[in-house]
Amino acid sequence: MKDKKVIIVGSGIGGLAAAMRLATCGVNVQIFEKQPYPGGKIRTNNSPAGLIDSGPTVLTMYEVFEELFRACGEAIENHLEIVPEEIIARHWWRDGSSLDLFSSFEKNMGSIRDFSGVKSAQEFQKFNSLSKALFRLFEQPIIKSPKPRLLPMIIKGGGHLKALYKTLVKQRILYDFLEDNFSDPRLTQLFARYATYVGGSPLMSPSILALIWNVESQGVWRVKGGMNQMPKCMENIARKAGAVFSYGKSVDEILIEDKKVQGIKLESGEKILADIVLFNGDPQALTTGLLGAQAKESIPHKSSLPRSLSAYVWSFSAKPTGKKLAHHNVFFNSNYKKEFQDIANGIMPTDPTLYICAQGNNKDPTPSSTNISRFEIIINAAPVPNTKIFDKNEEFQRCKNITFPILESMGLKLSLDPKKEMLTTPFEFEKLFPGSSGSLYGRSPHGINSTFKRPLSQSQIKGLFMAGGGTHPGAGVPMACQSGKHAAEMILRGLNLT
Ligand SMILES: Cc1cc2nc3c(=O)[nH]c(=O)nc-3n(C[C@H](O)[C@H](O)[C@H](O)COP(=O)(O)OP(=O)(O)OC[C@H]3O[C@@H](n4cnc5c(N)ncnc54)[C@H](O)[C@@H]3O)c2cc1C
Description:
Elements: E1 5-9, H1 13-24, E2 28-33, E3 44-45, E4 52-53, H2 62-71, E5 82-84, E6 87-92, E7 98-102, H3 105-116, H4 118-143, H5 150-156, H6 161-169, H7 174-181, H8 185-192, H9 211-217, E8 221-223, H10 229-240, E9 244-247, E10 251-257, E11 260-266, E12 271-273, E13 276-279, H11 283-287, E14 310-318, E15 320-321, E16 328-331, H12 336-344, E17 354-358, E18 373-381, H13 392-409, E19 413-414, E20 423-424, H14 426-432, H15 450-453, E21 464-466, H16 477-494
Parallel strand pairs: 1-2, 1-13, 2-9, 6-16, 13-21
Antiparallel strand pairs: 3-4, 5-8, 6-7, 10-11, 11-12, 14-18, 14-20, 15-19, 16-17, 17-18
Helix pairs in contact: 1-10, 1-16, 2-16, 3-4, 4-5, 4-9, 7-8
The site of flavin-adenine dinucleotide has 35 residues, from helix 1, strand 2, strand 14 and helix 16.
C-alpha cells in the first residue's frame, strides 16, 4: 500500500491522530502544515518562566488517547507523563464565595453542601445522574460512530426516557433547564459554562450539552511539561511509522478533477499528486473557496454555519498574590446573561467571566506568590465577520482595561505590565486558522440538530476527507482525536486495508 499516497493538510490533533493510524497501517502519508510546529490550536508562547500553553489546557477523555496509542502499538505512558488533577476547577464569585469541584462524586456532594446547603447538594445529585445518562446515550451512537445515528440512541434511551424527554424532546435551552434544576444561581452559572467548552452560548445551546459535565467529572488530566507535549509526541510516533512532515508549507488549493481528488498545490505553486487528501483545517475554509473553487462543493455550505465562539486569550508570566489558585480557575461575573448577550451582539463583553490556567513554572507547576508563574486567561468572544478589519491597539487597550481590574477587584493581583503580544484576538485567530471566522470550535452547537449537521469525515468529492474539531463528532482535543480515527478508518476501508 506504500504506492497509495495520502496527503494530510494540517497537523492539528485530528490530522496527527489520522497520520499516526494511517502510517501505522503502512500507508504512505505526508503532512503539510503552514506553521513551523505541530498541534494547531495547541500553541505555546515564550515567557521568562518558560513555554506557556496558550491553547487547550483541560484534557478530558484520556481513554481516547490511550486507545489511539494502543492502536499504533504504543503505550501512552511510555511517552507522556499524564496525571489526573485532584481539583478539576476552582470557581470564584464576586461575593467572595468559592467552590472547588473534584473528579469524585462524593467530594463534590460535600463541597456543594458546604458551599450552598443540602438542597443544592440534592439538586446536584439529580443533575449529575442526568448528565451521566445523557452521556451514555450519546457516546456510542454519536461520538464513537463515524455518522451520528438517532435510532440507536432512541432505542438505547429506553431506560433513560425521562432524561431524553427533558432534554431532547422538550428541546430546552441549557441555561433555562439549569435554572429550573438549581435553586442557587451560582450553580446554574457554573454548569451552564460547560456549553462554552464546545463554543456555545449557554443562552442558546440545547440542554443536551448538560452531558459535558459528565465528561469533566470523569476526570481532568494534565500533561507534564505542558499540553504541547502531546502533538510533539504524536508527530514522533507518526514519523517512526514512516509519515513525512513538511512545516511552513501552506496548501493553497486542493486539486480536483471530475469530482475526484488529484493532489494539492502549495503556496509556492508546487503541485503534489496524491490518491487521497485529508483536510484538517476549518471546514468553512473549503466552503468559502480558500482551498480552490472546486473544493467549495465538497461539503454543504450550511454544514459549518452558524459559527461557534471565539476568544480573547492572554498568555504571560507574572507573580500572583491575593488568591490561592488551582491549575484551572474560573472568576465568574455577576450577570452571566449580559456577557452572552454582548457576545451575541458581536461586542467584547464589558464584564466577562475569566478562565485562568495557572501553570506554575518549569521547576514547580504549582503557582505561588513567591515564584513567577505562567498564565493563560481566556475570555469568550464573538466570531469575527470576514469583512471587518479590527484594530489590535484598540482591542488590546479595551481588553486590558477589563481583564486586570476585574481580577484585582476579586482579590487576585498579577505583577505584570500587559503587552500587546500577550493577547490573541478573535481577528488573529481567523488569521491563524483561515476560514474559521476566529471561531475556535467549528460549527456552533446551537440548535438541537447541530450534532447531525456537522460535516462528516467523507466529503462529496472522491478522495477528499476531513478531520478536526469542525468535523463530526465536534470540538475539543479528544473529539478532534476521535474524528481523526473516523477519517483514518474510512480511508483505510477505501484502500481495502481493513
Ligand atoms: C484558546 C483555546 C482553548 C481551548 N481549550 C480547550 C480545552 O481546554 N480542552 C479541549 O479539549 N479543547 C480546547 N480547545 C479546543 C481544541 O483546542 C480544538 O478543538 C482542537 O485542538 C482542534 O484540533 P483540530 O484537529 O481541529 O486542528 P486545529 O488545532 O484546528 O489545527 C489545524 C491545523 O491545520 C493547519 N492548516 C489549516 N489550513 C491549512 C492550509 N491551507 N495549509 C497548511 N496547513 C493548514 C493549521 O495551521 C493548524 O495547524 C481550545 C481551543 C482554543 C483555541
